[in-house]
Structure formats: C-alpha cells, structure tokens
Amino acid sequence: MNLGAEFPLDKDLLYLNHAAVGVWPKRTAEAVKAFADENMHRGAAGYLEWLKVERELRGRLKRLINADSVDDIALSKNTSEALSLIAYGLDWQAGDNIVTSNQEFPSNRIVWESLKERGVELRLADISVDDPEAAMLALCDEKTRLLSVSSVQYGTGLRMDLNRLGQFCHDQNVLFCVDAIQSLGAIEFDAQACHADFVVADGHKWMLGPEGLAVFYSRPEAREKLKLSQFGWHMVERAGEFDAEDWTPAKSARRFEPGSPNMLGIYALNASLSLFEEIGMDVVEKAILDNAQQLIDWVDSKVELELISPSEKGRFAGIVTFRKHGLNRDGHAELYRNLMAEGVICANRSGGIRFSPHFYSDMSGFEVRLRPILD
Length: 375
Ligand SMILES: Cc1ncc(COP(=O)(O)O)c(C=O)c1O
What we know:
15% strand, Aspartate Aminotransferase, domain 2, 2 domains, 4-stranded antiparallel β-sheet, alpha/beta, Aspartate Aminotransferase, domain 1, 7-stranded mixed β-sheet, binds pyridoxal-5'-phosphate
C-alpha cells in the first residue's frame, strides 16, 4: 500500500496527536464526499446499500476487538455516552463500590462519581506505582461491583495489563469495563481474552474516524444486567415492523440504539477500519511501538527533558509524554503553543507535552522539528 497516497497530510505538519483526534485517511474523506453526493443526487434511494455498510462496520468492529458476535456490538455517540449507559443501567445498592484509577480521563471518573447520590462509592487507585494492577486490585472488596479502567492512560500513556485485571474480575464476580479509546486502532485488543464485560471507545482517535461514533461492546450476560433508559423504534427485536403494537428490546446490543443510526459517521468509520484490516493490526501495532520508542529514546537522550511515560516494553502504546526541567505548568502550556505554531501538532497533558504518532507517521527528521523544545 502506498501510505503517502492514503495520508496526503500537509507537509508543514508533524502530526503527533492521535491520542486526541486522528487524521482521516484519504479513503475516509472520499467515502464521506461520495456519501454527500449520493444524498444530494439520490437521497436515500439506496438505503438498503447503506444498511449493508452499517453491517460491514459492525463486522469490522467485532473483529477489531475480537468480540464473539456482532450481536455484542452497539454503536453509540461517544465513549461518555456508552459509559453512562452502563452506569445508569446497573442496579446499584447503597454501599456498592466501583474501582478505577487516579489517571483516568474525566469520562471514566465523572460518570461513576455521579452515582454518589445512590450511595455508590468510587475508589481511585493510585497507579503511579511499580505495580499499577496490584494497586487497583487492592481496592477491591466484597462490595466492589465494577472495575473500570482505560486500556492506555490518556496522560501518561501507561498501558494496563488488562488480562490480569480481567481475570481477577472474572474470578471475583466483578464487572470489568474497559475504556479502549487509546488502544483501538493502535494496538491489538481482545475483549474475550481479557474477560471484558464492557468495552467502549469513540472512533476519532487511533481508529482514524470522525468524532461522534463509538463502539459499545457488551458481553451477553453483562448486557442483561443493564436496565434500558433510551427507547425507540430501532432498539426493539422486530425493528421495522412499524405496525406491531407489542415489542421487546432486541436481544442483541442493538437494544442500546434507540433510533436512526449516524449513517455519515458509519460510512466514514467503515472506510477507516478497512485500512486497518488491509494492513493488519499486528503491523500497525509494531509501527506504532517503533515510533513511540524513537520518541522515548529522543527524550531519554536529552538532559533537559524528563520522560513521564513508562519506557518499559509492554507498558506503553502510542503515547509519549515528557516535561522539560525548570518549566512549570504555565511554561509547558507556552511550549505547547509554540510547538503548535511551528506545525508540531501535539497536546498539553499531565503537566507536560504529549506526543502520539500513528503507524503511518513519517518520523524522518523529527529531531530537527523538535529542536525548539530544547532552546
Ligand atoms: C481515555 C479517554 N476516554 C474517553 C475520551 C473521550 O471520550 P468521548 O468519546 O466521550 O469524547 C478520551 C479523549 O481524550 C480519552 O482519552
């Protein structure tokens, strides 16, 4: 595959920001343009074709996370919405607790905190330690109903050992919820191997899709535990039988999709994921780890800089965050603005600078582009 043709990104940019919002491949932009033209010229005359694309996307998502069935895949608006469906679907008892970490993106904290009024306690494990999984498991007790964690932490880039956490949850009858937005499209993921009950992730980061279309995986037994809070024609078992007066929720995860799908987003994400299938997630993962390693080595080689991200193999994915000695938060915010002004697209996270190259990123000569950091 000619990667340059798939990613005709402007040459003035060094795009190191896939942990925030990714870049669309050419095929995705073309799919959206073609869909717009089709709508303009033919309306929804080809709706049956659209449904085929929707089914294709569900199949790709199933394979991407190694779900057992497409029936376990729902399409949500975003990660936060899917997490909210879980939080407000479970039947909490006062005294129950939820365990998460102190490095989570707000989406994976606020929603659980909001359950306080139902008497649910949120426990935040300090995972800035040698054994982050042990820190999380140590907070679990007989009242723990759910453990929720990001597969890769958005700020530090710390990659969690999901199999270890999931095995514990499986053995202890604790629900296991994974925010996989910093993994899917970057590194290989296996929902079944890690015993995930729920996996949530919007498509706009490493999956290189648009904002506003997320995968929401639920294991069938876990799905049954969620009381529904959104209803409509699309979430019933016999969707499309508009004259039927009786209805039951779909057995599949479609029960979480009350109405018309985000078809434009579906066309886009389906195109993006076709690229990953052509290339292979093993190849993508290797290239991402190589790119991250290059940045880690660069940071490590500069006395002015301090690496925030882990550098141990298996403990990082695509995120490399660092700080510059002698700079406070404001200083890093200014450094971030300067980098952006120079076309180095990055983020200001964890009080430092976060880089997140993708597999296709052309890292040749990156040291020259990053030299202003050292000034
Ligand atoms: C770990 C993590 N979860 C969730 C999100 C975003 O959630 P949503 O899809 O609801 O916008 C981000 C975005 O930065 C994130 O890093």
